[in-house]
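User: My instructor asked us to take a sequence, write out its structure as tokens, and then describe one feature of it. I'm not sure where to start. Here is the sequence I was given:
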Amino acid sequence: MKKILFTLAMMLTFALLLVGCGSSDASSGSSSDSSAEETKEITIGYFPNINHVPAMVAKSEGYYEDRLGDNIKIKYQTFPDGASFMDALKTGEIEAGLVGPGPAMNNYTNGADVKIIAAGSTGGTVVLARDGSGIETVEDIASKTFITPRVGCTHDVQFETYMKELGITSKRINGTMIHQTGKPATYQAMFETGKVDVAVAPEPWASVLQQKTGAKVIIPADEVSFGKTLPASVLVTSGSLIEENPELIQNIVDAHKDATDFINENPEEAKAIAINDIKEITNQELSKEVIDGSWENIGFTYEVDEEAIQAFGDSSYDLEFLKEKPDFEDLIDTQFID
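Assistant: Let's start with the prediction itself. The structure tokens for your sequence are:
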């Protein structure tokens, strides 16, 4: 009887040891899984204008979160112009985002590590004259003051290309037009105080100028140089990030494509999202009429017209924004949208 009791006690002790070992292994595995699921942060950049609605929609509908998964936290950062956006991309402050093709091209030619991976929109650049400026035709702009977001930005190149074909250039290249720069959200005040005569305005600010100040459209969005073919915004990232994590970039592009499809399938909902997002960023609430007018001047697509981008770059060189004639073959990487 004692032998039986001793044997049972030994078996129970051994069983308890096994349970203890199993518990230890499970705890170890849980710790490892927790480490593997460490949250990372990705920041997407964009501007508060209608050409950048895909980013606003992706933000509102959670498309980046859906595509990138629970272990990646998505942040959004807005910029007033392409120069500040590109500085953020080069320093790693943002991983990807929407910017005008001009800043992307200019920085690429200066050696920046930037890749265009999709288009965002087309059109949207409108040239308007201030009421009372005396400007009735394009030729009247010759000695007037015009404003763009930055020197050599997308809108600036479109306008100056158009004007140069008419033999009219800015003082920067020995012409007569006077150039100022400023945030598009301030153009209304600039018109109302008479500080500038012409605004080269991205939407929705072009429609704001028409409705709020009585500005006259001198060059419509579909007539300004490259207005029908050039991507007005492009989705960019760095070449190093493409090499390091192509799966991440594919998910970013897929989320961008989801947003573009949403805009084209649900325009009224996309307009409401744009109104809310722009108000949150700029403290300016745009009317539905302004947004409707803007929408007529813009198309949304993720397909990239590579020939149009090269032609735009050649014109930037011709206008002396670039020191060397560019070759954009390695700037554009369409593998993620094909």
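For the description part of your assignment, you could build on this observation: The longest strand covers residues 115-123. Try explaining in your own words what that tells you about the chain.
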